[in-house]
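Inverse folding, one chain.
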């Protein structure tokens, strides 16, 4: 039995094993299912997180697009005036209004989402509180912040940049009082949005702020203003001095400034090692101190900026050049743009004759033979009609005021308009002087005949007529004339006669010396024309010799050979042998006229220019015999530039040949003459100043290597008192009066002279390898610093870039003193705060233009800086600072950085908001002109493009 049972048991199937196997498979399947669900849950969470991140990115991008939309709406129609600053545009009325003035600034357009109220913000639920754009970062050992490390002096912590949230609903609309209007002014987000709408809940929010990159220093271009190191001329963007920027323990030193510059180029941009392509590329510099200095200035530095270089009226400024190569529109590689075979250009002084209009080769404009008469007429007409006669200046209070009214208000037409041609000629001839290689530049002389400005070389019959206008180039001047008749008689009973002419070479007139020896100056022979006699000027050992027929009086005699050379400030007396004559009869008078001529170069000076009509003042000198050749009565001038008509000359009883005229000595440094409006140039004491008696050196001279006007500030050297007619109301010119780039004496209903500056610009020194930075587009200039620099609406300051513009700049015409760093910072703060100059003696107080302007006054023109304390409030000599900085400052920028933060939100049924993701971004956008001649472009149009982008991570 037991054996049977044991056999039976041994043969039973293994039921327990099967159960174990079944359970094992159940466990495996369970694990797989659980793993699948866990994986699904993780994937779902990751996908959800990624989705929320993408939503936050989208909302952050809404901030960028809001800034871009404002820029596109307000700055791209090519007609309206506008200015920019960090966070704000100031613009005219709505362009859709038929009656709106599109040049007068009237309202602010915010480039941000609105400043939060700190008191009410602190009382809010934390989830509703305003975001801080300037949060602390965690990528350095010491505390640093995203946008700026400026410290609030009250809290001793980094400045916060808190803005209002713009809430976005499910249907895409914003939580704004009026969603159809821009985020600005009264149309701002609420700090506490409505959260009861369950059918259209809040799904996200963003805040943004737009910085103006032109309020920063472009460290691809800036360097040092130090002639020993930087050979570029004043006005070049490399003169923005990096050493004015702060650094730990002081300021950036010369070593750091040179390290930054040499990282880019070692040969003045002829070759490029590499540019900085972001605000942070300086980390590639190996020097730790330089890297730290750049990081310290992250709120002051940019790698790319430009200004639009357009006028108040949205038009390109006129280039102060006669050279087509300097005015040509160019692509990013620096190649000229063309329409057919014609080169496209900016407006410029296009007066030179060219057989081939596509020829961009240099033509020396120093002689009249290269000037095309038809082109000259067109340019002068343009300057008169579209510049000098403008009566819609946006900063002038009242209507219909012009420079024509200011300077020629007492003249009747057509003389009133024709006189503007004189100012136009002076501008053209100044530019010709800067661009010519010749020592002496032949002045343009012309007369309006109908609507044509006829050159008196083209039509010699008009020479000596009234209303013939003479330009004012680099040259020497006739300043005194008379006639000597000897008391001795020859065998025929005749007396020797000399025409005596004094010539003057002013100081600081771009001429190192002038040699009267034939063939020595520019290889030319020189002659003095006097009452029909025009002999070549030479030298006599004895003044009684018969030859040469004209001689330098001071050079007569052994050992006086050096007197043939005239140095700056010198006078020389030229004696011209006239036919022998009878002794003068009682009361005899003779009309005198003279000129300086150069062989093959025309007449450099002619006085008087016109034959006065009957009844007008005549240049008749009493004729008397005298033993001494210089013991005669003479006519002498005051301002050597104002010598064209008889009224400009004074008859004196005792001559002053070879030295300063008493007429001048009794004017310069003395109280001004009464009756001149506008007034003469005055010094800081209120006396007549000769500080603007200046001309540029010839092209190729060490002081003018490239032959260019350096800034529109040089317009302050343009004379406004020259007269071409004895029948004018004044009867004479106004000596010692140039355009005034100083605090304005007249009321704000009178056009200030500095307003004229905004209509002109100068050629950029553009190395082709660096064209994309020096002139990013044909109507823009890189490296200029915007004076409207306040970062609205925050409690931040940005004065250091303005100090960089000023540091080391020459501050007076009278000496070579320059602005110290302390002085530069003081003036920079005055510009930043718009602190007007204070009245001091004869110097008027600065004025705000216009008096009835936008809510927060802004600069509309670089010229407006002259009204600010410390800039040009020390008399005529202080205009030197304007010439140094005018090409380095602007009132509007073309490149903007939009900083934005976006958050994805979920709104619960109870109205609670839950932040599901956040994204911060910086987008740098550029406003630019697409020129005709570029690909797929048939006409000029203004566009916006992104030039740099990054996600911001704390």
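Residues assigned per position:
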């Amino acid at each position: 039995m037991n054996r049977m049972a044991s056999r039976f048991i041994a043969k039973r199937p293994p039921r327990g094993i099967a159960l174990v196997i079944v359970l094992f498979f159940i466990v495996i399947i369970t694990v797989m299912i659980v793993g699948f669900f866990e994986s699904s849950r993780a994937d779902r969470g990751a996908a959800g997180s990624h989705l929320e991140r993408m939503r936050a990115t989208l909302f952050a991008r809404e901030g960028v697009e809001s800034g871009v939309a404002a820029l596109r709406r307000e700055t791209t129609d090519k007609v309206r005036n506008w200015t920019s600053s960090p966070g704000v545009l100031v613009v005219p009325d709505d362009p859709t209004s038929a009656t709106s003035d599109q040049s007068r600034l009237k309202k602010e357009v915010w480039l941000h989402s609105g400043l939060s109220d700190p008191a009410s913000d602190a009382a809010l639920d934390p989830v509703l509180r305003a975001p801080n754009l300037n949060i602390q970062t965690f990528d350095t050992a010491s505390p640093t912040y995203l946008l700026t490390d400026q410290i609030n002096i009250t809290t001793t912590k980094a400045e916060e940049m808190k803005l209002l949230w713009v809430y976005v609903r499910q249907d895409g609309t914003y939580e704004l009082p009026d969603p159809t209007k821009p985020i600005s002014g009264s149309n701002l987000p609420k700090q506490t949005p409505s959260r009861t709408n369950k059918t259209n809940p809040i799904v996200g929010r963003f805040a943004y702020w737009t910085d103006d990159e032109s309020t920063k220093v472009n460290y691809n271009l800036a360097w040092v203003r130090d002639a020993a190191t930087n050979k570029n001329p004043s006005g070049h963007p490399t003169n923005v001095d990096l050493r004015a920027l702060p650094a730990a323990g002081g300021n950036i030193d010369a070593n750091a400034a040179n390290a930054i510059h040499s990282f880019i180029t070692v040969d003045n941009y002829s070759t490029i090692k590499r540019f900085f392509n972001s605000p942070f590329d300086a980390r590639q510099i190996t020097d730790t101190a330089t890297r730290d200095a750049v990081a310290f200035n992250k709120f002051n530095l940019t790698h790319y900026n430009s200004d639009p270089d357009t006028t108040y009226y949205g038009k390109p400024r006129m280039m102060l050049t006669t050279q087509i190569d300097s005015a040509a529109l160019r692509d990013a590689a620096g190649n000229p743009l063309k329409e057919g075979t014609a080169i496209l250009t900016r407006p410029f002084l296009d007066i030179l004759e060219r057989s081939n209009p596509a020829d961009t080769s240099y033509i020396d404009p120093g002689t009249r033979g290269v000037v095309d008469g038809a082109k000259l007429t067109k340019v002068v007409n343009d300057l008169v009609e579209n510049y000098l006669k403008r009566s819609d200046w946006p900063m002038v209070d009242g209507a219909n005021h012009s420079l024509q009214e200011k300077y020629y208000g007492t003249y009747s037409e057509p003389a009133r308009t024709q006189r503007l041609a004189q100012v136009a000629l002076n501008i053209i001839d100044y530019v010709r002087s800067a661009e010519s290689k010749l020592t002496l530049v032949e002045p343009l002389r012309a007369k309006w005949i109908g609507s044509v400005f006829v050159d008196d070389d083209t039509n010699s019959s008009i020479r000596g007529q009234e209303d013939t206008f003479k330009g004012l180039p680099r040259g020497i001047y006739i300043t005194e004339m008379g006639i000597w008749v000897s008391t001795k008689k020859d065998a025929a009973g005749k007396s020797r006669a000399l025409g005596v002419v004094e010539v003057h070479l002013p100081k600081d007139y771009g001429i190192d010396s002038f040699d009267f020896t034939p063939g020595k100056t520019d290889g030319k022979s020189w002659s003095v024309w006097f009452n029909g006699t025009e002999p070549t000027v030479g030298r006599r050992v004895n003044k009684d010799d018969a030859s040469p027929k004209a001689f330098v009086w001071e050079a007569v005699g052994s050992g006086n050979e050096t007197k043939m050379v005239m140095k700056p400030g010198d006078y020389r007396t030229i004696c011209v042998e006239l036919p022998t004559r009878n002794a003068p009869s009682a009361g005899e008078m003779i009309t005198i006229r003279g000129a300086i001529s150069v062989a093959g170069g025309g007449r450099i000076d002619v006085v008087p220019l016109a034959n006065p009509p009957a009844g007008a003042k005549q240049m008749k000198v009493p004729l008397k015999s005298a033993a001494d050749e210089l013991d005669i009565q003479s006519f002498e001038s005051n301002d050597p530039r104002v010598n064209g008509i008889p009224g400009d000359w004074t008859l004196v009883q005792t001559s002053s040949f070879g030295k300063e005229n008493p007429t001048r000595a009794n004017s310069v440094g003395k109280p001004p003459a009464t009756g001149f409006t506008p007034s003469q140039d005055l010094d800081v004491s209120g006396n007549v100043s000769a500080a603007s008696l200046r001309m540029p050196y010839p092209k190729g001279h060490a002081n003018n290597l490239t032959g260019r006007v350096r800034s529109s500030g040089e317009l302050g050297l343009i004379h406004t008192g020259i007269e071409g007619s004895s029948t004018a109301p004044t009867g004479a010119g106004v000596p010692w009066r140039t355009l005034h780039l100083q605090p304005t004496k007249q009321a704000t209903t009178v056009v200030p002279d500095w307003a004229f500056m905004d209509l002109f610009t100068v050629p950029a020194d553009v190395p082709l390898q660096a064209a994309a930075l020096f002139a990013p587009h044909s109507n823009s200039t890189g490296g200029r610093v915007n004076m409207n620099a306040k970062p609205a609406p925050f409690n931040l300051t940005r004065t250091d870039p303005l100090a960089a513009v000023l540091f080391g700049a020459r501050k007076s015409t009278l000496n070579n003193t320059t602005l110290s760093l302390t002085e530069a910072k003081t003036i920079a703060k005055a510009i930043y705060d718009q602190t007007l100059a204070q009245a001091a003696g004869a110097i008027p107080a600065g004025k705000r233009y216009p008096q009835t302007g936008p809510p927060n006054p802004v600069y509309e023109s670089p010229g407006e800086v002259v009204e600010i304390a410390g800039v040009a409030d020390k008399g005529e000599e202080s205009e030197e600072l304007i010439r140094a900085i005018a090409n380095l400052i602007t009132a509007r920028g073309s490149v903007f950085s939009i900083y934005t933060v976006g958050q994805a939100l979920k709104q619960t049924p109870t109205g609670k908001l839950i932040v599901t993701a956040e994204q911060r971004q910086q987008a740098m956008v550029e406003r630019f002109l697409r020129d005709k001649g570029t690909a797929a472009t048939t006409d000029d149009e203004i566009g916006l493009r992104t030039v740099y982008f990054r996600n911001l991570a704390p």
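The first strand starts at residue 83 and ends at 85. The first helix runs from residue 2 to 10.
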